[in-house]
Amino acid sequence: MSDIGMILDRIGRKLVTEVAPKLEGDYSGGHAGMSGLMAVMAGEAWDGAADRLVNEIAGMRGLFALAGKEVAIDQSPSMKISDLTIERNALAGYLIALQMSLEAREDDEAKSLNVKIWMHLMATAMARMPSPPDFPDAE
After folding, report:
1. Distance from the CA of 96 to the CA of which of 50, 73, 135, 138 falls in 20 to 30 A?
2. Count of alpha carbons within 13 Å of 7, Cβ hemisphere only?
3. Pick from 67, 1, 7: which is nearest to 42 by CA?
4. Please, what is the angle between helix 4-14 and helix 26-67, to 10°?
5. How far apart are CA 37 and CA 42, in angstroms?
6. CA dist 46 → 10, 29, 128 (Å)
7. Is the whole-model pTM more than 0.90?
8. Which residues contact residue 19 at a Cβ distance below 8 angstroms, ignoring those fewer than 6 apart?
9. Digits of tens for pLDDT over the chain (139 positions)?
10. What CA–CA distance (Å, rounded) separates 97 from 111?
């Protein structure tokens, strides 16, 4: 069994729906419930991590193309999350520098590209937000 997302989801759901309701005391039940929620959300994050990183990288590279900027960042050697994260973080450093230079300018082209950068940042922040799990009511 190597589906990390599914494993975390099953562990989390078991904790929330079966273990937490049977524990005595607010602390024990609450702790088990929160651990279960975190496991479910971690499973969801794990499942979408590579896709999210690939989309973030493509978005940043697209912004650099719009700006007519070359970035000296090689593409990831694999689709491993660790490799994609290195590429994304390196590109983010260039994006920060680009945005700083745009914010110092007053022309319409700079303002337009700056808006696109903010839209990209908002979209990536939203993509990282976990969705609320759909647990049945406790008995």
Report:
1. 50
2. 5
3. 7
4. 150
5. 9
6. 14, 25, 11
7. no
8. 32, 36
9. 468 888 988 999 899 888 988 887 778 888 888 899 899 888 888 888 999 999 999 999 999 999 999 999 999 999 999 999 999 999 999 999 999 999 999 999 999 999 999 999 999 999 998 887 776 665 5
10. 15
Distance, in Å, from the CA atom of 97 to the CA atom of 91, rounded to the nearest integer, reads 10
Q: How many residues does the chain have?
A: 139
What is the DSSP annotation of 7-69? HHHHHHHHIIIIIGGGSSSHHHHHHHHHHHHHHHHHHHHHHHHHHHHHHHHHHHHHHHHHHT-
Instruction: Give the pair of three-digit tokens for residue 87.
Output: 């590429």
